[in-house]
Amino acid sequence: MTPRRILRRLSVAGAALVLLTPMTTAVAQAKPVVPTIAWGSCGTDPKLKPFQCATVEVPTDYDRPHDATTTIALTRLPASDPAHKIGTLFTNPGGPGGSGVDLVQQAGQLIYTPQVRAQFDILGFDPRGVSRSDPATCYPTAAEEERALANVPAFPVTATEERRFIVDMAKVAINCRTTSPDRLAHYSTANVARDMDLLRQAVGDEKLSYVGYSYGTYLGATYAKLFPNKVRALVLDGTLSPEWYSGSNGDPNPVGVRLKQGEGAYDTYEQFLAECKKAAANCALNQLGDPTTVVESTLERLKTDPIELGLPDGTTLTVTYAVAVAATFSNLYDPIGFPALAQMWAQLAGQNRTKAAATAPQALVEWNRRKEDYNSVGTVLQPCVEARQSHRPLAYPAYADAADRRAPHFGRFRAWVGIQCEFLGIRDTDDFRGPWQNTVQSPVLVFGTRHDPATPYEATRPYADLYPDARMVTVEGWGHTTIGKSTCADRMITDYLTALESPADGATCNQDRKPFDPVPTGTKALNLLPQ
Questions:
Q1: Which among 338, 302, 346 has a CA at the least distance from the CA of 321?
Q2: H or E element: which one contains 192?
Q3: Whole-number Cα distances in Å, 470 to 76, 205, 418
Q4: pLDDT tens, 30-64?
Q5: Contact (CB, 8 A) for 174 and 422
Q6: Cβ(466)–Cβ(220) under 8 Å?
Q7: What is the pTM of this model?
């Protein structure tokens, strides 16, 4: 396990040291300067030739818009039919801590239809404090960070691990506060929304067209509150409840409990096992018996008997109970990956109780590789500066026990999200804390997937009801967001963005395939969103 991997799993899909109240601070009325974007090459990599890149400076503190600045990195995929261009489509991949530059460069040509790509410049930016945009780092170097967290588990299970984990997370928080205090102090989603509105002006759009995934729906809700008259179109996919995330509903639980990711993940996990059983020979677990019995007994065994597996680079991965749960959570994001997840569990179940140098299944290899997505644990700490905290870090074992009873395995895992925030002691005083009802008059398009492990479906209708004219669409299926899963949803998004044609509220879409349907050769899960 590595620090980027561990702390990424402790980000939301996931909180500061005062209770949330209605917004008590006001950003100064002095207007910031709209930056000029000088688009240029993204480098020598041939894969980046279709894209343009730039950096701009925005105010670090919008109360002092003409003082210090923060660098924002951005990229765009230019509209393929500039004569019929509508404008710029802003995107956010979620997280918090997700790179918008990476989303557009790695997936912009895949996840948006030809008509959308023809009529919009697709723009991604790294939010302040993230990746290329003055990242909030917690140690002087990546190597020091790696050493500091080399032995930290994905999440603690035993009482001894829990005590050690709390101490380790306190140390992480202290190092973040020492290394990047100013960046963290201006790191709130409200400031990202203000940055996005400056970028909107910089590209020359009168109003914002935006697609936000997961945490990106929280950014969308924040923008809608701060700039309700500047909205042209909002596509909000995989909704993160603003009340749950911020704690503005008065829930005293930690953010990792409030978000109900444990419940969402457990529901999707049960669906994975049920679909596996129905898939007969198409699911590897059926060769070993009842899928639920096989996986549950293996999870129980891993609590005391971890397995050592070889990786392609010659190193090994110790598969503990915590690693297995975290890897399963990751692989629930896209149903196209369910067969590989079943193969992983079939191999773990068939492994001898003693450690053996077997080869790790592909699902574990890919999960372990994705540790490199972030350059510092600090980039996932946005909840620390803007969301309500429990103020009871020593009570996290009790929170985790209760969550585990509600949602076995995954409740415990996600309950530890945000523990480092209890010790950070930094708040962005220009954050937005609710209330969340907004006055956006344009129709907005809201998607919820029935069995979503990261943003539970039950948050979708309450989220939609924050908008005067939200059109909620239920995607009947599995996984996190609609990306790569439903041509029906893609068609609705295209019609909405290009012609402002909205489906009726309460519409439904199906996914294009069942989880264990045969997969065409070369097809892979689009696990593009932060986890």
A1: 302
A2: helix 189-202
A3: 28, 22, 30
A4: 899 999 999 999 999 999 999 999 999 999 999 99
A5: no
A6: no
A7: 0.92
